[in-house]
Amino acid sequence: SSLEYQFPEQSELHNYKLLDKIGEGAFSRVFKAVDITGVDQTPVAIKVITKENILSNEISEDDNRIKSSSRKQVMNECAIHRMVSKDNPYCTKFIGFQESASYYYLVSELVTGGEIFDKIVQLTYFSEDLARHVVTQVAIAVKHMHLMGIVHRDIKPENLLFEPIPFQGHQGDAQKEDEFKLGVGGGGIGLVKLMDFGLAKRIYDNTAKTPCGTIEYTSPEIFCSKPYSMEVDMWGIGCVLFTLLCGYPPFYEKSHTKLVKKICKGDYEFLAPWWDDISSGAKNAITHLLEVDPSKRYDINDFLNDPWLNSYDCLKPSQS
Ligand code: ADP
Ligand code: MG
């Protein structure tokens, strides 16, 4: 109808109809959308990125906080997203790319449960079983990426989505339902999916051919950069696991300089009373992930073999 609100982003996008806005990032707005050609009725998610050229003139003052991305960055995001989500249920599936004069459109599988971030806010913190259920799936996604020589570089609760599973017990069983919400049986969290490949990067891989011809002229840091780059994702997983278990992040300071200092020293604590009832196994895993020296930090295989991660596997998804 004529009363329908027209998103400015819609005007140049022809085969999808944008529905509700479901998310916002530093560089984008994300909408639920449907294919209006009727080929596929399944709703999708479309990340709309404003092109640089329209920012300066057409966008109002108010919209100026939405930054643009360069074409190269967007192409990199698409290529990596497509590669990592192929045959991998633990990353949101990449569907396609479109562009218009003003926008880039990145179409992906819609994940309906929302962000793990919001689930932490809702539950305050996760039980150890529920935290394990989540990070195991993130770790499988990261292993898949690291094996391809790709580092994500932005692992955080905002970039983890989940498919909800409904409460299966008897209706009216308030105690069972409360337990469920606290994590028994998955807490309503089914498949967890890593998303947002905007900062992801292909790293030089020893097993691959040299990307730029002769190896003789390649500097040592090119060869050394691989393990160190992969380690940033392990730090990210450590921050996520810490946050899931207690409800607040390991490093927090209002001042940017103070925060950077704390991170560089690995200055975090298992504060009472929040950490009193959390197992030493979980703390041990975090200690190995939040290790300042990247050469001593857990790599993805170390983490997947961690005794705490493997100590209770009734919620663990099967590794495919
Ligand atoms: P940015 O790179 O700007 O951070 P993201 O790709 O992280 O953008 O998307 C921003 C937010 O939009 C996400 O945190 C999430 O809440 C939502 N979102 C993005 N993609 C999807 C999707 N496929 N399904 C559901 N929600 C999504
Ligand atoms: Mg994001």
Would you write up a description of this structure?
This protein has helices at about 50-55, 70-85, 115-125, 130-145, 175-180, 220-245, 255-265, 280-290, 300-305; strands at about 15-25, 30-35, 45-50, 95-100, 105-110, 150, 160-165, 190-195, 200. With about 325 residues, the protein is of the alpha+beta class. α6 (about 220-245) packs antiparallel against α8. The longest helix has 27 residues, at about 220-245. Residues about 55-65, about 205-210 and about 315-320 have low confidence and may be disordered. Adenosine-5'-diphosphate binds near residues 23 and 111. Magnesium ion (MG) binds near residues 25, 158 and 196. One of its GO terms (molecular function) is protein kinase activity. Keywords: ATP-binding, Nucleotide-binding. This is Protein kinase domain-containing protein.
Q: Please, what is the average pLDDT? A: 84
Rounded to an integer, what's the Rg over CA atoms? 21 Å
C-alpha geometry: globular
Counting DSSP H or I runs of 4 or more residues, the number of helices is: 9
Q: Which class best fits the helix and strand makeup?
A: alpha+beta
The profile of the biggest β sheet is: 5 strands, antiparallel
Query: Between the first and last Cα atoms, what is the distance in angstroms?
Result: 46 Å
Outline the low-pLDDT stretches: 56-66, 206-212, 316-320
Protein name: Protein kinase domain-containing protein
GO molecular function: ATP binding; protein kinase activity
Binding site for ATP: 47
Domain Protein kinase: 16-309
